[in-house]
């Protein structure tokens, strides 16, 4: 049996889990914990907080550590996440933290591998389609920010995933009313352009509801008001579908689309609203292609941890060959 420590370090929560791999190759979750990212003033302090928590598994007992972070990764050991106040450096991981074998990955590499895990297999079907075997599959998800990745078979019996920082690119507003909202956001945020991170994140729900209703609320409060303010839900659904459609077209993800992340997990009505399908399938040139793309929702918010475990299993397997 092999032991795996995985982490999914985001702008709001830092999740950790202990997985095992049985002799049959089955990956099993033993325990997990969520910590508040902002309560740590540095990555070493985050690890100290983990040690002080009720999480019983010790890093020194792991065969491999896979840590996912919401940001670009350098040489599989360093990252300066744009939405976290501190960076991560695993260059001397064994000396500093007791990780004898470790790898640092972008958080949506983990989400991509999660689509190939048991929770990916159990994902909720949102839109039907006809996935193409061996084609790329897209994974997208909004939480504190907007993450994206694609995954495909590596022809060695495993998978390879490619990250993206597309959440930091301009969001495409397309109508005069939407341009009015864009001007509202530019004034509210004092930025020179508005990104997908802003529009479809949890914070984006708050901005949208403020613009449409005049009410300033936290994202969870906005979700509770969807029945009373259906326009907020419709806009949120349309915007989310737009970033999904555009990423599928940009990557030609004929293998389908998986949606992860806290926004959709906590408010799946954003994806099941009729505006989502209408916007996602809409294209003046490629509507026939989009009609074949299945969309699934991963509602388990430990998905990044599962993805890290699936990647760990693949790495350990390849080391034996």
Helix-strand pattern, N to C? EEEHEEEEHEHHEEEEHHHHHEHHHHEH
Provide the β-strand percentage band. Answer: 15-25%
Give the strand tally. Answer: 14
User: Structural class given helices, strands, pairing?
Assistant: alpha/beta
Quaternary state of the chains = single chain
Low confidence ranges: none
Tell me the overall shape: globular
Instruction: Report on the biggest sheet.
Output: 6 strands, mixed
Tell me which CATH architecture of the largest domain applies here: 3-Layer(aba) Sandwich
Q: Please indicate the count of domains.
A: 2
Mean pLDDT: 94
Helix content: 25-40%
CATH topology (level 3) name of the largest domain: Hexokinase, domain 1
Strand order of the largest sheet: 9-14-13-10-11-12
Question: How far is the first residue's CA from the last residue's CA?
Answer: 17 Å
CATH class bucket of the largest domain = Alpha Beta
The radius of gyration computed from the alpha-carbon positions, rounded to a whole number of angstroms, is 20 Å
Q: Enumerate how many helices there are, as a single number.
A: 14
Q: What is this structure's SSE topology?
A:
Elements lengths: L1 E8 L3 E9 L5 E10 L6 H10 L11 E6 L3 E2 L3 E2 L8 E2 L3 H5 L4 E5 H8 L3 H4 L2 E4 L9 E6 L3 E8 L5 E6 L11 H14 L6 H5 L1 H12 L5 H6 L5 H22 L5 E4 L1 H5 L2 H4 L1 H7 L6 H4 L4 E3 L5 H18 L1
Parallel strand pairs: 1-4, 4-8, 10-13, 13-14
Antiparallel strand pairs: 1-2, 2-3, 5-6, 6-7, 9-14, 10-11, 11-12
Helix pairs in contact: 3-14, 7-9, 9-12
């Amino acid at each position: 049996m092999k032991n795996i420590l995985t982490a999914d370090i985001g702008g709001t929560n830092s999740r950790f889990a202990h997985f095992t791999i049985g002799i049959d190759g089955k990956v099993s979750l033993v325990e997990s914990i969520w910590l508040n990212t902002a309560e740590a003033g540095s990555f070493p302090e985050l690890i100290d907080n983990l040690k002080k928590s009720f999480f019983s598994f010790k890093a020194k007992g792991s065969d491999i550590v896979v840590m996912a972070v919401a940001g670009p990764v350098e040489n599989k050991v360093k990252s300066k996440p744009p939405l976290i106040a501190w960076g991560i450096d695993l260059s001397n991981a064994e000396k500093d933290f007791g990780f004898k074998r470790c790898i640092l990955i972008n958080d949506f590499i983990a989400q991509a591998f999660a689509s190939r895990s048991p929770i990916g297999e159990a994902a909720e079907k949102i839109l039907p389609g006809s996935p193409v075997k061996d084609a790329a599959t897209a994974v997208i998800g909004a939480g504190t920010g907007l993450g994206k990745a694609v995954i495909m078979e590596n022809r060695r019996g495993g998978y390879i995933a490619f990250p993206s920082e597309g959440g930091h690119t301009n969001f495409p507003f397309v109508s005069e009313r939407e341009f009015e909202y864009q001007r509202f956001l530019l004034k509210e945020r004092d930025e020179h352009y508005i990104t997908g991170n802003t529009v479809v994140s949890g914070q984006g729900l708050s901005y949208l509801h403020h613009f449409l209703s005049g009410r300033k609320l936290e994202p969870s409060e906005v979700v509770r008001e969807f029945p009373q303010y259906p326009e907020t839900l419709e806009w949120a659904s349309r915007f989310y579908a737009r970033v999904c459609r555009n990423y599928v077209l940009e990557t030609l993800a004929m293998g389908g689309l998986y949606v992860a992340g806290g926004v959709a997990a906590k408010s799946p009505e954003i994806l099941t609203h009729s505006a989502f399908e209408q916007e996602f399938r809409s294209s003046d040139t490629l509507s026939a292609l989009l009609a074949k793309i299945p969309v699934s929702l991963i509602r388990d918010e430990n998905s990044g941890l599962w993805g890290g475990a699936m990647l760990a299993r693949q790495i350990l397997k390849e080391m034996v060959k």
